[in-house]
Amino acid sequence: MKVWFVDDQASNREHWRKSFSKGIAGLSLRTFADVDSILAALRTETPDIVFIDFFLDGRTGLEVVAFCRRRANANPCPVLIAHSSLDSASERMVEGGADFAVPKEKIGGVIPAIQAAIRRKADLEAIVRTRRWPG
Hints:
Blueprint: E1 2-6, H1 10-20, E2 28-32, H2 35-42, E3 49-53, E4 55-56, E5 59-60, H3 62-70, E6 79-83, H4 87-95, E7 100-101, H5 110-117, H6 121-130
C-alpha cells in the first residue's frame, strides 16, 4: 500500500514519518514538501492514498487534486484526503475534487486525528475501497 503525505512544513513531514508508519506492515510511505515534487512523482507512479495540505509554499493542494482528477481516465486516481489548518481550506479541496477532509483535532492538529483512525493496513485498505473516512 502506497501512502503519500504532502505538507510544506518539515516538522509535520518528520512527525508523519516517525509516528504514522510505525507498526503498519506493508506500508510504503513517501513525503513531499511542495506541489512540483508530488506532481513529478505522480507522472510516473500512482499511490493508493494521498494526504494533501491546502497551503503549500505559495501554492495550494488544489493543483494536486486537479492533476489527479484530470488523469483519472488514463490512470487510477488515488484517494485524495485534504488536511489543512483551516476547515474552510479543506472544504475547498473537497469541492475541488478531493474525496474528503480529515477532521481536525482542537489540540495537536491533523496528525493525531489520522493516527486515531488508521492503526493498521486494513484501515487504509478500507479507505481505498470505500473512499470514506472511518467513523
